[in-house]
């Protein structure tokens, strides 16, 4: 018996998935909150494993399936080679095995290029933002677990013979953090 399968993806944990595939009756939904920059995504791989011949896969829009033109072509091919149909709801496009509609293929190609272009713009804006923050002297990345004074105290305690485990417990950090402090002090 054929299944109606949904694949839903957003790029970050704080984004909502509820608007995607809203109102479409589905037998199984694969959802993930992860970048679409490559195809090594757990829910995507699970969906590809799950689908069978005569199933129909629904994706809200092309960019939700992938951001690279090559990845999009390969994924559509992988799905249709299994005998399943893939439907991109927003674009109103559907692909199945042996389908050779040149206009639809051209539209798919153009939309794939735009998805890849959008990914490139995101990366460029991110790089510009990082460069701007660095130029302003802002700290990037996770906040430091320990202050300079605490790091110095850790080095002194270890040099005085305290065990790594005891020092880590006192400062409520991992042993790796203690080792890191020691290596940076030398």
UniProtKB/TrEMBL annotation:
Active-site residues from the entry: 11
Gene3D superfamilies: Homeodomain-like, Resolvase, N-terminal catalytic domain
GO molecular function: DNA binding; DNA strand exchange activity
Keyword DNA-binding attributed: yes
GO biological process: DNA integration
Keywords from the UniProt entry: DNA integration, DNA recombination, DNA-binding
Pfam families: HTH_7, Resolvase
Record CDD domains: HTH_Hin_like, SR_ResInv
Protein name, as recorded: Site-specific DNA recombinase
